[in-house]
Write a structure and sequence with these properties.
Elements: H1 5-22, H2 31-41, H3 48-57, H4 80-98, E1 107-108, E2 111-112, H5 114-117, H6 120-141, H7 144-158, H8 163-174, H9 181-206, H10 211-238, H11 241-244, H12 250-253, H13 259-263, H14 265-284, H15 291-301
The structure holds geranylgeranyl diphosphate.
C-alpha cells in the first residue's frame, strides 16, 4: 500500500472510530472518570502508534491468500483493538507526564491538560484506568496465543525497563546538569522508541509475521522512534506553542538535556535524517517493501508538530 495523506487519514479515522467504540461511554459510572479518560484520549493526537499497528498488520496477507485457492485460509485477527490499546497506554503516559509531580504542564494536544480540566486525583485515576483498559482490550479481543504475545510486547515496552524506566531517568537527568549523550540515548530509546517499536511489532504479531519480518519491524521501530524523538527535541527548540499544541521551549527553559542541547541543532537534524533512513532500509525488507510505512517515515521526518 503506497503512502498518501488520504490513506493516512483513513487509518486515523479507523483509530478514532475504535476509540469511540471500544472504551466505556462517558456516562458510565463513575461518569467523571470515564469523561476524563475520553477527554484526554479524544483530544486529537497524531495517532502515530495505532496507525503503525494497523499498517504493520496489513503487510501480512491472510495465510493461503496468495497463489492458488487455499484449503482453509485463516483470516488474521482485527488489529483495531490492539491499536486502541497502545493509544490508551500512550495517553496514560501523557496524562501522568503532565501532572504537577512530573512535568507540570498546562497544555496538551492543544487543550488544558487533564489535571487542569478536571483535578489532579481524577487525572491520575484516568491515566491508571487507561493503562488497565489497554490490557483488558488485548485480553478480550484475541485468541489466547496472540493475546499472550501482545500483552507481553506492550507490557514490556510500557514497563519499568522501557517507558517508565526512561521517564524515571528523564526526571533524574533534570536534576543533573551533566547528562551525557549515552544517558540521553537511554532515556529516548526507552521513553519514546520502545512504544513506537512495540506498535510495529504488535502489528506484525497480529499479521502472524515470520521471525525475520518481526526482527525488521523491531529494528525499524527503534530507528523510527529515535528519529521521532530527535525531531520532537528540534521542534521544542524551534516551533511555536500554537502549532505544537503543547508548551514549546519548555525543555530548554527547564535546562533539560535534549539532542539539540547536547549535539546542537545541525547535528541533531543530521542524526534525525540518519535514523529515518535506517528505519526506511528496514521497512524495505518487509513484504512488498512496505511503501506506506516508508512514506510515513518520510512524513514524520518532515513533520511540523
Ligand atoms: C509518565 C510513565 C510515564 C511516561 C511519560 C510519553 C512520556 C513518558 C512523556 C511525554 C513527554 C515526551 C516528550 C515524551 C517523548 C515521547 C513523545 C514525543 C510523546 C508525544 O507523542 P506524540 O507527539 O503525541 O505522538 P500525540 O499527542 O500526537 O499523540
Amino acid at each position: 500500500m503506497e503512502f498518501s495523506s488520504t490513506r493516512l487519514s483513513a487509518y486515523v479515522a479507523r483509530v478514532e472510530h475504535g476509540l469511540e467504540q471500544l472504551l466505556p461511554a462517558a456516562g458510565t459510572r463513575p461518569a467523571r472518570l470515564h469523561t476524563a479518560m475520553r477527554y484526554s484520549l479524544q483530544a486529537g493526537g497524531k495517532r502515530l502508534r495505532p496507525v503503525l499497528v494497523l499498517a504493520a498488520a496489513e503487510l501480512f496477507p491472510p495465510t493461503g491468500s496468495t497463489g492458488s485457492p487455499p484449503a482453509s485460509p485463516k483470516a488474521p485477527p482485527d488489529p483495531l483493538p490492539a491499536a486502541v490499546a497502545i493509544e490508551c497506554v500512550h495517553t496514560y503516559s501523557l496524562i501522568h507526564d503532565d501532572l504537577p509531580c512530573m512535568d507540570n504542564d498546562d497544555l496538551r494536544r492543544g487543550r488544558p491538560t487533564a489535571h487542569k480540566a478536571f483535578d489532579e486525583a481524577t487525572a491520575l485515576l484516568a491515566g491508571d484506568a487507561l493503562l488497565t483498559q489497554a490490557f483488558l482490550l488485548l485480553a478480550l479481543n484475541y485468541e489466547p496465543a496472540t493475546s499472550r504475545s501482545l500483552v507481553g510486547e506492550l507490557a514490556a515496552a510500557a514497563g519499568s525497563e522501557h517507558l517508565i524506566g526512561g521517564q524515571m531517568e528523564d526526571l533524574l537527568a533534570e536534576k543533573n546538569a551533566g547528562t551525557t549523550a549515552a544517558e540521553l540515548d537511554f532515556i529516548h530509546h526507552n521513553k519514546t522508541a520502545a512504544m513506537i517499536q512495540a506498535a510495529l511489532v504488535m502489528g506484525g504479531l497480529i499479521g502472524r509475521a515470520e521471525p525475520a519480518a518481526l526482527q525488521s519491524l523491531r529494528q525499524a521501530g527503534r530507528h523510527l522512534g529515535l528519529a521521532f524523538q530527535i525531531i520532537d527535541d528540534i521542534l521544542d527548540a524551534t516551533a511555536d506553542t500554537a502549532v505544537l499544541g503543547k508548551t514549546a521551549g519548555k525543555d530548554a527553559k527547564a535546562g533539560k538535556a535534549t539532542f539539540v542541547k547536547i549535539h546542537g541543532l545541525e547535528a541533531a537534524q543530521r542524526m534525525a535524517d540518519e535514523e529515518s533512513n535506517a528505519a526506511i532500509l528496514e521497512f524495505r525488507k518487509l513484504p512488498g517493501g512496505a511503501p506506506f510505512l516508508v512514506g510515513l517515515t518520510e512524513e514524520m521526518a518532515a513533520r511540523k508538530r
